[in-house]
Amino acid sequence: xxxxxxxxxxxSLKYQLYNMEDESVLAKGRVERIGFESSILTHEPEGxxxxxxxxxxxxxxxxxxxxxxxxxxxxxxIITSVDEIEAVGHRVVHGGESFSNSVIVTQEVKQEIKxxxxxxxxxxPAHMMGIQAVEITMPNIPQVVVFDTAFHQTMPxxxxxxxxxxxxxxxxxxxxxxxxxxxxxxxxxxAAEFLGKNLEDLKIVTCHIGNxxxxxxxxxxxxxxxxxxxxxxxxxxxxxxSGDLDPAVVPYIMGxxxxxxxxxxxxxxxxSGLMAISGHTSDMREIEEDMNEGDANAKxxxxxxxxxLRKYIGSYAAAMDGMDVLVFTAGVGENSVTLxxxxxxxxxxxxxxxxxxxxxxxxxxxxxxxxxxxxxxxLVIPTNEELVxxxxxxxxxx
Length: 398
What we know:
Elements: E1 2-8, E2 12-19, E3 24-32, E4 36-45, E5 51-57, H1 60-71, E6 85-92, E7 103-104, H2 107-115, H3 124-137, E8 143-147, H4 157-160, H5 166-172, H6 181-195, E9 203-209, E10 213-219, E11 222-226, H7 249-257, H8 261-270, H9 273-278, H10 284-292, H11 296-319, E12 325-329, H12 330-335, H13 337-345, H14 356-360, E13 367-368, E14 377-380, H15 385-397
Parallel strand pairs: 1-6, 6-8, 9-12, 12-14
Antiparallel strand pairs: 1-2, 2-3, 3-4, 4-5, 7-8, 9-10, 10-11, 13-14
Helix pairs in contact: 1-3, 10-11, 11-13
């Protein structure tokens, strides 16, 4: 079976085509600047040269049509007919309390996703456009939706409820949902397999560190607590998001600077985090380069970022009464030697001992970076959220 995985954004669309017989990626690519005259399609077919096309792509339906056309293209394609695609899997950020598992798309499912637009106004409407575009372009192909929040539906009420009037939860479902669930699920399973142990026997802290950052405490194979909340804004300091702060800061700022709610929301989501403290960048690679050249703002940004990560790791070890495995994943987690080293060197009271040579090895492979004497296994596990979506899609459709 061939499964097409789609991650639709408001002005972009990423895709991967899988052959599920061996879980190989036949092609991948992205469409950027949807809605503009100069949209860009980048296509990477397995065993062939990368192709870039610039054209007018004004909506997601046109974007999907372009993707299908390039997949079956005589020279650049990887399949002979769209009929070879037997299912399409979509990433959907917010499933609320409605979805604790991946599901086949039905009219009822679409209605539930629409009800959750208020909880993820930047993401869920875009995902729905992707679903509707596939319905128009490939009307007879079944679709599956995989939710970022589903993995975290196992959290106990003591983890997901906020200490506010309970009526707000009952009426408006204001609670912690958590995100990056497909990533935390995947790397925790891979960690157990790497170590040759049962996932249910391990207490794992997984750190998904990219432009968005989240930590999850995984106990007995299930999400026990996670750093992101009702929205992805809560929790750790991120590339452009503030993470945790005193809620009273918001009305105070609005009173002092005369900002609207939408403007404060934009400030906290798009103009805070590393970007705000460094003064010019949200890219950890640039932060580290500037820090090494003596930039005080870059050093402060790095120190705050690392400190908050380390606090969450420690708190989750306390929440689970121990930690057997610490996992780093995603762009920064997989590539920042300096960040991993700094965090681990200041968690020695847990019995963590890092192997500098393994930590400094540049590799895209799964690997252990803790020493043989370390009481906690420290692993780098490259995430693969697209494969999780493809697997769930294959399982449900088959």
